[in-house]
Amino acid sequence: MINTTNDPSTPPTQRSIGELVQSIRDELLGVVHAEIDIAKKELTALGIKIGIIAACAAVLLFLLLSAWVMLLFAAATGLQRAGLPDWASFLIVAGVFVLLAAIAGLVAFLISKKLKAPETTIETAQSAVGAVQGKRRSNAVTYDDTFEELYGKRAETASSE
Fold it and tell me: Which helix (DSSP H) or strand (DSSP E) does residue 71 occupy?
């Protein structure tokens, strides 16, 4: 018989160990399900907020793009008023943006040439995968290694003193 409370005056219950394990399992499952329900509610609320933010960002980008197009037309119209033909003013505006795009592409290309693979991360990930697969590193310590091989000095024993 097992006392299921911390109160010594409470009489022990007539539950077996199997029944106690089953009740622990049921309570644990209940806690896990409750945590999952809480997580679902929190993630749903977070998802709704993220959706609203994404919709507002899309509207913002559309309006900024529309304003940008209007600014480009205004620049071309300004060049027309300065005495240039229609086709030349729009061609100048387009040419400026092609030139800016080429410069941005060149900068991106030059920066991408300097990028290196994350060597340390790759090495540690490979060693972790190897450890999970049961493989040993080439410089791993074995049980056969002696203290002298590991530390380069002779082990002093208390009995020799």
Answer: helix 17-81
Q: How many residues does the chain have?
A: 161
Q: Is the dihedral of CA 92, 93, 98, 101 positive or negative?
A: positive
Ramachandran angles phi, psi of 2, nearest 5°: -125, 135
Enumerate the domain spans of the chain.
17-117
DSSP reduced 3-state for 13: strand
* Residue 117 pLDDT class (50, 70, 90 cuts): confident
φ, ψ dihedrals at 61, nearest 5°:
-65, -40
Q: Is 15 exposed, middle or buried (0-12, 13-18, 19+ CB in 10 A)?
A: middle
> Rounded to an integer, what distance in angstroms lies between the CA atom of residue 45 and that of residue 110?
43
pLDDT at 18: 86
Q: Which residues pair with 2 in a beta bridge?
A: 13
